Amino acid sequence: MQLEQMEIAVIGAGEMGGAIVRGLVAGGHVPAGHIRVSNPSKPKLEALERVCPGMHTTTSNVEAVRGTYLVVLAVKPRLVEGVLEEIRPALLPEALVVSVAAGVPLELLAGWAGEGRAVFRAIPNIAVEVAAGVTAISCKDASDEQRALVTDLFASMGATFAVPESRLDAYMSLASCGLAYAFRYIRAAMEGGVELGVPATEAKQAVMATLEGATALLRAHGLHPEAEVDRVTTPGGLTIRGLNAMEAHGFTAAVVAGLRSSLPR
Fold it and tell me: Which DSSP letter does residue 11 get?
């Protein structure tokens, strides 16, 4: 089955559920008319309808999943079991269940979804909304074709990584929490730019373009980041002075400590 032909249900229209719906529609791979979204709050559904006209919205989870081939659970972890118990009788026998709830293991999902059903855990970040997301994916009882389909779904919204379930939390820290860390770097660099006399708006634009350039260089050359650092530093130069000052204030140690601290306990 192709993405364009597939009926998809998204349970939950919060930040992540909404980002996934907007990303799917914006990417053009899934027609809005093939997406059903359920949420207990009508205002959230109405907000999605305004930016994704043509999709089906409902406050009934059962209505949303009936007849769909792929169901994305974008609800709080504590609600996953109850939602699956509610919708299980309405699921097609071949329907796939994809949970984006952090910390709910595949073994539990498989038990709640019904014996033999293919279940997936996906950990996306909210940049899926603009087709620039990062999603780590693990699965249980899925065929190669089913794995490819779920991978294609999230690949339409950014980069994907098929990983063992044991590594999902690390990807969550690195890419999902990592977005917030990147935003904080941008803010800090903006503040430094303002101190140096650059207007805040221009500083933001310059920092964003610099990060895009750094990413583009790494992609183009395939080098280790430190090799690219060596290309822009000279003995006794300004850049190495800046780098050493940052390290003296714990730059690398702070980043690593942040990543470690954001692992679930």
Answer: E
